[in-house]
Design goal:
By secondary structure, the chain is of the alpha+beta class. The protein has one domain: Alpha-Beta Plaits. Helices cover 15% and strands 36% of the residues. It has 2 helices and 6 strands; from the N terminus they run E-H-E-E-E-H-E-E. Strands 1-6-5-2-3-4 form a 6-stranded antiparallel sheet.
Length: 122
């Protein structure tokens, strides 16, 4: 169980793919800015990886995924309420090269359940 805030850096995987709605991730990435927030969303019903964590921009366009290893490390905790808050830390590539996106991810633990106490009698 993760019980304290911390952060890490990673890159988005699958940035060269085309989304199911036909949008090209490389085109979407072209319009991103450093420090822009992105959403990390669990996909427990993903047919390729039950631990998948997708990354979306603020307009709900999919940009890619966390690596399978990283998703495996956080999926179960996310299912219990852990949140991954991310911003774009840098953009790479461009011109003749594939564009890439690096993230700064802050791990926010799930809230702890409130313990019920017996009422005090006077």
């Amino acid at each position: 169980m993760i019980d304290k805030d911390y952060s890490f850096y990673t890159k988005i995987r699958g940035v060269a793919q085309v989304n199911s709605n036909g949008s090209k991730r490389q085109t979407l990435i072209k319009h991103l800015k450093v420090d822009q927030p992105v959403h990390c969303v669990r996909e427990p019903n993903n047919p390729y990886d039950k631990n998948a964590i997708a990354v979306y921009d603020t307009e709900n366009n999919q940009l890619g995924y966390f690596s399978a290893d990283l998703a495996h490390s956080y999926a179960r905790e996310m299912d219990k309420g852990l949140r991954l808050m991310a911003t774009i830390s840098s953009l790479t590539g461009g011109f003749l090269r594939k564009r890439g996106v690096n993230l700064h991810v802050i791990v926010v633990p799930a809230p702890k359940p409130i313990k019920k106490t017996k009422p005090i009698r006077s």
